[in-house]
Specification:
Number of strands: 0
Largest sheet: none
Low-confidence stretches: 1-6, 86-90, 239-254
Helix content: 55-70%
Radius of gyration: 20 Å
Structural class: mainly alpha
């Protein structure tokens, strides 16, 4: 019999035994929540009225941030332990090898995951505080805009570190690689979130146009993250995917 022809990575979308698959799925749901929240905030007449109220939109944003944080935790664990199928399962020796914490400041992938995790935590505070009522504009800037701005900076830094990881340098142009498209689209999404954060600043006299622009750029960023998260699934089966890169020559520590 002739050897079986490997299936295309684009046709293989089911891999629940892969940690990276769960990361991608969780980021997809988180991106969808942010995308819907931003869309419903700017175009409230399009969705059903009950699904476009300020309270519902705020809750959707908060749920999306929880998806982001869960995915970021798994991505950090993946950077520490590798893409394992069932954490903690199997032989006792395998369970003992699982690590919940590490410090690898020379590894671009690890730093990217760590900084992104910090950013998702800040988005938890940002979206959670947005559910509070009766805040002054100063309190809104401190509790909502501040975490949003710093979290967006974290996402931007994490996205660029991910580019360093797959490029093995400060920049690369590899449009034939799925992994390259994942990090580039993620980087564009992070830029959009950063622009959204600038427009999200609260002033003594509210600027309605600023809120609309903030939601628009949040929508753009969420769409970028959604596409990049989807591409992470066929990337799992891409035989040409790049190996993790180092910021500096590896040392014996970590």
């Amino acid at each position: 019999m002739p050897p079986a022809v490997p299936s295309s990575p684009w046709s293989r979308l089911w891999a629940p035994r892969r940690l990276a698959w769960w990361i991608a799925v969780l980021f997809i749901f988180g991106s969808a929540c942010f995308g819907y929240g931003a869309f419903a905030a700017n175009w409230p007449r399009v969705p059903p009225q009950a699904m476009a109220t300020g309270a519902v939109v705020g809750i959707v944003f908060f749920i999306g941030s929880l998806f982001f944080t869960t995915a970021a935790v798994l991505q950090l664990l993946e950077a520490i332990n590798g893409d394992v199928a069932n954490a903690g399962a199997g032989r006792a020796s395998d369970r003992a090898a699982w690590r919940w914490f590490a410090w690898r400041p020379r590894n671009a992938g690890y730093l990217s995951s760590l900084i992104q995790f910090a950013g998702t935590l800040l988005f938890n505070f940002n979206t959670g505080d947005a559910l509070l009522h009766g805040l002054t504009w100063v309190e809104q800037d401190a509790l909502i805009w501040g975490p949003d701005m710093v979290g967006s900076i974290c996402f931007l830094a994490a996205s660029y570190l991910a580019l360093i990881e797959i490029s093995h340098g400060w920049w690369s142009f590899e449009p034939r690689q799925v992994a390259w498209w994942v990090v580039i689209i993620n980087l564009l999404g992070s830029v959009a979130f950063q622009v959204s954060a600038f427009y999200g600043f609260y002033t003594p006299s509210p600027e309605p146009g600023w809120a609309w622009d903030a939601n628009l750029w949040t929508l753009v960023g969420a769409l970028c993250f959604f596409v990049a998260s989807y591409l992470m699934i066929p990337e799992l089966f891409d035989a040409n995917a790049n190996a993790p890169g180092e910021l500096l020559p590896p040392s014996n520590a970590g």
